[in-house]
Design brief:
Largest sheet: 6 strands, mixed
Strand order of the largest sheet: 8-9-13-10-12-11
Shape: elongated
Helix content: 25-40%
Distance between the termini: 39 Å
Strand content: 15-25%
Structural class: alpha+beta
Number of domains: 3
Order of helices and strands: HHEEHHEHEEEEEHEEHHEHEHEHHHHH
């Protein structure tokens, strides 16, 4: 089922590619309906994918020839059209339909709901201007979810401009005032890395130039609170094909990648890949960041840091002057995905180095702030304690102890450390690039993607 939906999205993306490259309006809606149909002996799963709006205005259904449709749905059967009321509700929002494709699969299972939902969510992250409506009906149960992006950011690549969902869904701490917490993230665009195509893929007909473009997104953003302690807990890797459609299935290459990364250089204690069960419901590959054991009792008593996660996009880019037919372009994407593990292993050293560089550049500024803050805090604390302890003026010493509510200098160190943390941690520094206003929907940011936070 995912393969068929993936092919439909490729079809729409490739046909609308010229409009997107010309800089015209690419907003619109996508409707994915899935429902069951019970027959005499087998329960079938029907799917309808509809598209409307400016993003697909250049689509001509005549371009979908029978041979291309057969290539898109090799294992699918024709099915009845969806409920007209569902389509009417969709067209009321986005105008007349530009695309409606239906197909039927025999392996009906409620597990498809979570898999399709995860796939569509992953798709929406890198296609933020498309509003997606998903409805899944299985027997008497109905699940519905809309993917609508609140904050978008444009990340320009060499061959395409990416509209990313940078909305941060982490709730700010209670002590933060309204309008003083960044509700989005700031993508960091990495360098383009050319890839060599292995001979086995060439034998199957994969030619041209192939490369990857990495983009990282750290959230929640704490640029307005530079002294706030943070803790990176997860890293998620999402891979997209040349048409900006997610690559399905787990990647053995990225699952094994932590063993080849120099975590110390990146500024992390360690990484390990999540279980296969977690990967199915999260999309892509997820790493859990190992946390350093804290033996300092003073640090253990401190409030918990802000937990952050990092999203690593891997965008595949392909160009071949001899591939211009729609069927050839779709066949090429299928070849790239089929041979992706071989391609990555064929460029293992270069890809590993590129990923390490992107992680290091994204976390570098934050790690440097942590080191400077620790060093500055130790200097301030050491100087303050030295002044109080070395003073021969008993009135001055007693006044200092009294103001800190301490009876002797032994407990003064912990009290000063806590006071310093309380004063500095939540110091607010406004940033023009941050999304702090309390509005329903932010306009798309044209802020140039930085190479470094």
């Amino acid at each position: 089922m995912l393969r068929e939906i993936q092919q439909v999205l490729r079809f729409v993306q490739l046909l609308g590619k010229r409009r997107q490259q010309s800089g015209l309006n690419v907003k619109g809606g996508l409707l994915v309906l899935v429902w069951t149909e019970t027959g005499p002996s087998v329960q079938s799963l029907n799917c309808a994918v509809a598209a409307a709006g400016p993003w697909c205005i250049g689509i001509n259904m005549k371009a979908l020839q029978p041979d291309l449709k057969e290539c898109m749905f090799p294992c699918a059967c024709p099915c009845l059209p969806p409920d007209p009321e569902e389509l009417c509700a969709f067209t009321d929002l986005y105008g007349s339909l530009r695309l409606l494709l239906t197909f039927q699969m025999k392996d009906a299972s409620p597990e498809w709901c979570a898999r399709i939902e995860t796939f569509l969510h992953t798709y929406s992250l890198a296609n933020a201007k498309i509003k997606i409506h998903f409805k899944f009906k299985f027997s008497q149960q109905t699940f519905q979810r809309d993917f609508s992006v609140k904050i978008k950011n444009k990340a320009g690549g060499n061959q395409r401009s990416l509209i990313l969902d940078v909305t941060c869904r982490t709730q700010p701490p209670e002590c933060v005032k309204k309008g003083c917490w960044c509700q989005g993230g700031h993508p960091v665009l990495g360098d383009r890395l050319p890839l060599s195509i292995p001979p086995a893929a060439m034998d199957q007909g994969l030619f041209g130039e192939l490369s990857i473009q990495a983009v990282t997104l750290l959230s929640p953003c704490v640029l307005q609170y530079p002294n706030l302690p943070t803790q990176l807990t997860h890293i998620q890797v999402l891979v997209y094909g040349p048409s900006n459609v997610p690559v399905t299935g787990p990647s053995t290459f990225f699952q094994n990648l932590p063993a080849h990364l120099d975590c110390q250089e990146v500024g992390l204690h360690g990484l390990h890949c999540s279980s296969f069960k977690d990967l199915v419901h999260s999309g892509g590959t997820v790493y859990t960041v190992e946390q350093e054991n804290c033996e300092d009792p003073e640090q253990e008593s401190s409030p918990a840091p802000i937990r952050q996660s990092l999203l690593l996009y891997i965008f595949l880019q392909h160009s071949d002057p001899f591939t211009y037919q729609l069927s050839d372009m779709m066949a090429t994407e299928v070849l790239i995905e089929r041979h992706l593990e071989d391609i990555l292993n064929n460029n293992k050293q270069a890809v590993t180095k590129a990923v390490q560089t992107e992680l290091k550049n994204t976390l570098k500024a934050q790690n440097q702030r942590k080191k400077k803050m620790r060093s500055a805090a130790e200097v301030i604390l050491g100087s303050s304690l030295s002044i109080v302890s070395s003073s021969s003026n008993m009135d001055f010493r007693n006044a200092c102890l009294h103001s800190m509510k301490m009876s002797d200098t032994y407990d003064l160190s912990a009290s000063l450390r806590e006071s310093l943390r309380r004063v500095t941690s939540w110091k607010f520094t406004p940033k023009n690039i941050c999304y702090s206003a309390q509005v329903e929907e932010y306009p798309e940011s044209d802020e140039p993607t930085r190479t470094e936070i």
